[in-house]
Design goal:
Helix content is 69%, strand content 0%. The chain has helices at residues 2-11, 13-57, 65-75, 80-95, 99-112, 119-132, 136-149, 155-169, 173-186, 192-206. The longest helix has 45 residues, at 13-57.
Length: 242
Amino acid sequence: MSHKAWAWFEANRKQTLYGGGAVLLVSLIVAYFLYRHNAQEVAASEALSKVTVPQMIGSGSRTGVAEAYLKVADTYPKSGAGARALLLAAGDFYTEGKYDLAKAQFDRFRREHSKSPFIGQALLGLAACLDAQGKAREAMTAYQDVITRRPGENVVSQARFALARLHEAQNEPEKARNLYEEVERTDPYGPLGPEAGMRLEELKVKYPKLFAVPAPVVVAPPPTNTAPATTNAAPLRIVTPK
């Protein structure tokens, strides 16, 4: 069997060598890109840490922090650390009250990092920016989008609570009640569950009819002794031939 294999190799020496060389070349290219990707991730993480550490030990001033995050995001746009830097920049703009800038960065994150595990945070941030700008109906649509697209994520409770608050402000207490009840049920030990319970108590005072328990419907059993039904139909007569 080994003689046959060697004979095949001798007959196809050129093709085999070319094929082996091609496989080796592809392997080297893949290894190079993996190495470069890992090196970029390390460099991006180091750059990001240089922004966050001064922020933690500083005097509380956030001037220029968002811009520093954006520099990391622009320098390492394909890295995980770069994506986090972009999200942090958006959050920092929001904290500073620069809602237009924050919304632009949240929207950029949505476009450039749609597969990121943090996409739910970006969608919630977009809704919060619209909310902060007083665009209630647009914000309500955006919060509902978070609830629909990111089921099971922790951002859903935040979106439900914010949406309930907007429904309450829009004089839609029944929709607000339903959302508060859902938050209370799904986040009983988190910060929003108890808060939702308090809002429900306030709604109960303002709209007691929303929480009124309907009276049970009693269905009378059918009567047991009933007279045979009367009919106006003519009696049936069977005539036999003589």
